[in-house]
Amino acid sequence: MKRSEKAARILKQLEKLYPDPPVPLDHFDTFSLLVSVLLSAQTTDERVNMVTPGLFALAKTPEAMAKVSVEEILNEIRTVGLAPTKAKNIRRLSELLVERHGGEIPADMDALEALPGVGHKTASVVMIQAFNVPAFPVDTHIHRLGARWGLSDGKSVEKTERDLKGCFPRETWIKLHLQIIYFGREYCQARGHDLSECPICSWAASKKRITEESRR
Known about the structure:
Blueprint: H1 3-17, H2 30-39, H3 45-58, H4 62-65, H5 70-77, H6 83-101, H7 109-113, H8 120-131, H9 140-148, H10 157-167, H11 173-186, H12 201-204, H13 207-214
Helix pairs in contact: 1-11, 2-8, 3-5, 5-6, 9-10, 9-11
């Protein structure tokens, strides 16, 4: 099966399973989305959603957050991964948003990636969810499934992003990246996953890959 045919079939199946996938991170505006996505690195969305109410009770805007001490921020997010570094980044990016952008979140990938703690994936999520600009953020689920389905070789996140962008129409990217994440969580876990029984891996993965993963 050609990659284009496989991608079209995957897209059709994901659309049936997740016709309207919700954003998993609780947020109320672009700033809260940016901070929540930053916090989600090496942390579950559930954990992030547990700490953000307390964090945003301290400050809801960049202007207000820039006045909160790093220690206060850390006290609210202590249970997330890399909390000390994230606390410093949240405070500093809030200052820079005020200094460089008048307290607004820039609708620009380069400007977002220039903020402390904001990598390409975080910036891509913000561009999608806040500004409706097509992008393809690649998290661990998407990276894993891209390789399992034979749509990429899994050598790097950057290559997975390029390959998947080439497989799927641009107009599908906004919804598709969430659909793949939900599928990875529900059907296609990293460990102990029987590819031969998976709704997509069973036909999309090569026999060689099914055999290799069954031996792990």
